[in-house]
Amino acid sequence: MDINNLSANSLSELQLKVQEHSAFVDVLRKELSKVIVGQQGMVDRLLLALLTNGHILLEGVPGLAKTLAIKSLSEAVSVDFSRIQFTPDLLPADIIGTMIFQQHKGIFEVKKGPIFSNFVLADEINRAPAKVQSALLQAMQERTVTIGENVFQLPEPFLVMATQNPIEQEGTYPLPEAQVDRFMLKVVISYPKYEEERLIMRMNTIGEWPKIQPCVNSSEIINARSVVKEIYMDEKIEQYILDLVFATRQPEKYRLPELSNYISYGGSPRASISLAMGARAHAFLNKRAYVIPEDVKAVVVDVLRHRIGLTFEAEAELITSEQIIDKIIQRVDVP
Q: CA-CA-CA-CA torsion for 29, 30, 31, 36, nearest 10 degrees?
């Protein structure tokens, strides 16, 4: 939609369209809340990734419902789900598939791997070697898989949620920065609150576990994606997004010279694209036809935290990318 030629009537029509196509969001959240207690931020980030055709990297200690969240989402949306447990002996063929010789037919046939699902959980992605990680990330980026001489299109919608355990780093293969950049969002999951954990404990020790009922179909998700792209974004919001990203590259130009010693490299153009897409999707989730600065602020940390390289000086002084982003948000002028 041309942001320069948007009339009041057009915005009103778009608002009605957003209201219509976002009706499933409340139903979906309610269904997921049957089994996922708290962790609303994680659920919303999964929906953001789903609505923007992106992928998400979750980092958190075991037992925080990361697997349960995406499995429940796949049941609620009524799509195929597969889980890949990453281990050091995993091979690329274990993910994308391979050619198998059928002796009774005398020919090779394609055996598709678990990547051919709508929702894919890559559990503890840093446990597998680089060759396996690259096979998954290539499929994520290109949305196609090559097996032998055959090229296959991955299904739509297609969402990869990868998890990392931040505690155990022995025998792991950390994702290179260039590959982490392919994830639209990196979300850090924290422990539930006291009363939330009480409810989790009760649900797991007494009574029957609630069953997720399908409440959304894949066509509704695909239609919603097209509406998200139409969400109105003013030029001032675009400038705000670019200022936030450019401040990670040239902090001295944004009156943040003290950050120059802490940043080895800033966000790539993927950061600007992901921030704009994420802000639009956040407005959609809040049933708004236009983006406001709060939408950008809501997603900026998850979009940028894995796209800022820290220097040795920053690591020595225990400076985190979240602290850098917080200073940038405070200093960059809000439209």
A: 70
CA–CA separation, 296 and 165 (whole Å): 28
Query: Distance between CA 297 and CA 49 in Å, rounded?
Result: 16
- 303-323: per-residue pLDDT in tens? 999 999 999 999 899 999 999
180-216 tens-digit pLDDT: 888 999 998 888 888 888 888 887 787 667 788 888 8
Checking if the pLDDT of 142 tops 50, the result is yes
Please list the helix, strand and coil fractions of the chain in percent, rounded to the nearest 5, in that order: 50, 15, 35
What sections of the chain are H helices per DSSP? Answer: 8-21, 23-32, 40-51, 66-77, 93-96, 130-142, 177-180, 194-205, 218-230, 235-249, 269-285, 293-304, 312-316, 321-331
Structural domains of the chain ordered from first start: 32-219 (3.40.50.300), 231-331 (1.10.8.80)
Q: pTM score > 0.85 for this model?
A: yes
Instruction: Work out the burial of residue 4: count CB atoms within 10 Å of its CB; fewer than 13 is exposed, 13-18 middle, 19 or more buried.
Output: exposed
Mean of per-residue pLDDT scores for the chain: 87
Answer yes or no: are the C-beta atoms of 57 and 177 closer than 8 Å.
no
Q: How many CB atoms lie within 10 A of CB 238?
A: 17
